[in-house]
Specification:
Elements: H1 2-9, H2 12-32, E1 51-52, E2 68-69, H3 114-173, E3 177-181, H4 188-207, H5 211-215, E4 220-229, E5 234-241, H6 246-259, H7 267-272, E6 275-285, E7 289-292
Parallel strand pairs: 1-2, 3-6
Antiparallel strand pairs: 4-5, 4-6, 6-7
Amino acid sequence: MSAVQTIAAAGPGDRISLTLFFAAAVHALLIFGIGFTMATEPAVQSNSVDVVLVQHSSQKPPEETELIAQANQSASGRTARQQRPTDFLAGLSPTPTDGIAPTRMLKHQGRPSPASEAFITRTTPARHRVAAHQDTRERDGRADKADAAERQREMEIAQLTAELARRQQRYAQRPRINYVDTLSAKTAVEAAYLKEWVNRVEQVGNLNYPDEARRSHLSGSLIVHVLLDHRGRLVKAKIGASSGQRVLDDAALRIVTLASPFKPFPEEMRAAYDQLMITRTWVFRSGDSLITR
């Protein structure tokens, strides 16, 4: 307020001088680039400290230092900044020391090495491959057993089929047998053949009557089955019903053997069958004679 009053009280010369002074000041500000700014709060200066954890310590402190650490350490190389560790837990020359930590620290177990990972990667599929191989072997074993059982069944079926075929062939090739006894009806040809057969058996039997039966005056009757082929040869003879005396049974079989071969079959009989079974009753009389009926 006093400055305004002083300017107002000044004379015209003083006002001109004051105006010139302000004009010169303004031009000086424009020419020299002088400016004014409002006062603001002072900038806060950063007080952060770069601290590095080192693993190697030295007894003598270094003359020039670039970093702060928990122990003295002399730099190596051309500049200390170039040797700054890239890992905050790594040192230039690691030593097996416990360090100077205020509390005991547990050992850190790092990530497994690539070799271990590769081993795990290889062994895990290997176990699966072994298990798969075992499963495959078990399946193959079961398949082999099933195949063996199937082959065994096929062999059994083939054997049965072959045996059936042989039986059918034998049955087809079996000789045609005609059975003749005292009760069966006979053709004229068979009757004539049977009469000749009886005459021969009785003739040979009377000539070869058993001496023991003659001496002992033995008598008895028995049934004898005699099978002849188409040539009249004896195929077999057996006792159908025994006389009860071994001498007479054996004598009947011996007489049939001595009487063979018999007359061959006539053409009519040969065309009808291949073999002839004659069943007759043989009677040994005490008067040393043999008859068949």
